[in-house]
Amino acid sequence: MDSIDRAIINQLQDEFPICDRPFQAVAEGLGISEDDLITRIRQMLENKQLSRFGPMYHAERMGGGLSLCAMHLPEAEFDAITEQVNQFPEVAHNYARDHHFNMWFVLATETPERIEKVLQEIEQVTGYPVYNMPKKEEFFVGLKFEL
Hints:
16% strand; Alpha-Beta Plaits; alpha+beta; 2 domains; 5 helices; 4 strands; 147 residues
């Protein structure tokens, strides 16, 4: 990762313009071409330097459901079960944790009712219980990792 890649990541954590040519607008601000910007983002995704690039939607404001979930998994099975869980398109932000509940992920569904169904499906596929922890109150915490 070079200084231009770092500048791209730093810039795109703050905002992405809404205009006819957003990549061009960002590229101009960085002093590179639109094609170079797009190529670099694709390369960082392919190289797993970025896990995703795209908008963050507020599922609940769009009529969907959102919940934090956790699982307690044996270390020997963790990677295989992670692959199973991540096959569900509703699963986002799946992380390993140094805790009794060693897998934590966010579940975002098209409807609030779909949460329970997806949780049941994950339990059926993996053979392990999923602990559902719906939020009681929302707080906005701006998080940015300066590179």
